[in-house]
């Protein structure tokens, strides 16, 4: 994954300091592209451990068209919790300790972090145990899964972009219209987080399927390793259903940034030497991308260096 480390170095050396929505501050570059030959191994970062199980459960959540954190929490995946939690603590229903700016405050105050963790545990329990609470506070609005599987059409019906692209790949692989977009201007303001990985296009040549992703905003330390693995996995899953080999994953970034409170972690990672890439294993019993469960997807030969913790900017 030297491509990823090169991106980190590029931002450290050439990025400009910018403010941002979270108030954390970033070092940023605009317009960057990485290419990964998926035949050379599965692009899961080895210079720090990346939780592949979380990548899988999140992608399957998108594929199923789900937008509520309930199923993610039940799968012990908490990467979207903060946005749903924020919805709860800003509501009139919340009566606990003040959670204003909880992300940054917790990162700098261990005592406050313990309070946040306690409230987060209460929140997750309520989401799983109380259907009405999950409906009120677990739904993130029309985020990725809604746009991929149920894009609202002007006639009142919906468009299943993912299913349509798969059908097109099978029947007209040379088309230049194999496109899925998550950026819906009519609904973006209703989303807990507007889509960062916003637009993808698939391409078939020499019996191989490639995918190019345009990502408008890229949290390079925390988010991008997940994004690379997620869309590489999506490419593998679609290729398998369409009886194609895998080609490249091309990752095009708009605003690629490192948060100011991730700089030490990036330096630690850049001092490490990458290890061999793992391989992906998919169940042969599944014929459709829509049939996969977490246990049907695994990684083999993954020997990463230890994980590096960093706070998330909400």
TrEMBL record:
Self-association and partners: Homodimer.
PANTHER family: THYMIDYLATE SYNTHASE, THYMIDYLATE SYNTHASE 1
Protein encoded by which gene: thyA
The entry's keywords: Cytoplasm, Methyltransferase, Nucleotide biosynthesis, Transferase
Top-level taxon in the UniProt lineage: Bacteria
Family: Belongs to the thymidylate synthase family. Bacterial-type ThyA subfamily.
Keyword Chloroplast: no
Compartment annotation: Cytoplasm
HAMAP family: Thymidy_synth_bact
Protein name: Thymidylate synthase
A molecular function GO annotation: thymidylate synthase activity
Binding site for (6R)-5,10-methylene-5,6,7,8-tetrahydrofolate: 219, 313
CDD domains: TS_Pyrimidine_HMase
Organism: Psychrobacillus soli
Main location: cytoplasm
EC number: 2.1.1.45
Pfam families with a match to the protein in the record: Thymidylat_synt
Catalytic machinery residues: 196, 196 (nucleophile)
